[in-house]
Amino acid sequence: MENILEIKHLKKSFGDKIIHRDVSFGIQKGEIVGLLGNSGTGKSVMLRCLVGLETMDDGEVWFQRKRIDLLTEEAMFKIRTKISYAFQSGALFDSMSVYDNIAYPLREHEHLSISEEEKRVQDILTLVHLKDSGNLFPSDLSGGMQKRAGLARAMVLSPDVILYDEPTAGLDPVNVENVLGIMRSFRERGAAGIFVTHDIPAAQKVCDRLMVIDSGRIAFQGTVQEFDNSNDPVVQKFHVSL
Ligand SMILES: Nc1ncnc2c1ncn2[C@@H]1O[C@H](COP(=O)(O)OP(=O)(O)OP(=O)(O)O)[C@@H](O)[C@H]1O
Ligand SMILES: [Mg+2]
């Protein structure tokens, strides 16, 4: 199957600090690929490069057979409705209700009647188990609820790809399972994903494939089983004893 989203030969430095030497990989329609790597290996920077929030020193990004890294900011604004970045922090607007936070991308990109908007927002709120929380403000929410509201906002425009930047970080086990369930339901609705995480068991549960980034390169790509069986020292650092 062909890749829906692909990055080719990404190179990126900040000053004399080399982050990415040569990063290439692709993801296919409807799959969730886990991206593991130590803190500071450039996972978040790479996600930002994919959606043009960060410039690359060299490399290409391809989405649905089109090269997108050379597009104008206006064109990228549209692409970001199709490749949605679920920010590490959730990034909700504190001054807006949960409902308005989730309606925000709809109002920016689609012109819906009030009843259509309500239907879309309620549908997504229900999917993330927040159907009765639309009137609350971010400060009223628990950490788990904030993460779910952030995911709802990332999904409301029905993107083809969601970039999940540590969506389970800081959550208790029940809330982690909730988030993994939400990622599965987004996949069932056709959203492929890149799942950046330090939570190896979570990645193993939800991902179709896993990758490890190390020293500026993708050091491993394979199925969860191949990951488990790998003798590569770079991979073994991430093996967890259960
Ligand atoms: N705008 C910037 N200017 C300078 N250095 C930056 C900038 N953004 C990121 N970096 C550096 O690039 C490196 C990679 O950062 P990045 O946030 O991508 O790491 P990460 O793999 O996501 O780590 P974590 O797992 O802790 O989230 C870090 O050393 C970071 O300090
Ligand atoms: Mg990060």
What would your notes on this structure say?
The chain has 242 residues and is an alpha/beta fold. The two termini are 34 Å apart. The strands form two sheets. The chain has a six-stranded mixed β-sheet, with helices on both faces. Strands 2-1-4-5 form a four-stranded antiparallel β-sheet, with helices on one face. It is globular. Helices cover 37% and strands 26% of the residues. The mean pLDDT is 94. The chain has a domain at 3-93 and 160-236: Rossmann fold (3-Layer(aba) Sandwich), CATH 3.40.50. Helix 3 packs parallel to helix 5 (143-155) and helix 5 (143-155) runs parallel beside helix 6 (173-188). Bound molecules: adenosine-5'-triphosphate (ATP) and magnesium ion. The site of magnesium ion has 4 residues, from helix 1.
Short characterization:
By secondary structure, this protein is of the alpha/beta class.
Kindly report the average pLDDT value. Answer: 94
Number of strands: 10
β-sheet strand percentage: 25-35%
Which stretches of 5+ consecutive residues score pLDDT under 50? none
Present as ligands are: adenosine-5'-triphosphate, magnesium ion
Q: In CATH terms, what is the fold-level topology of the domain at 3-93 and 160-236?
A: Rossmann fold
Straight-line N-to-C gap = 34 Å
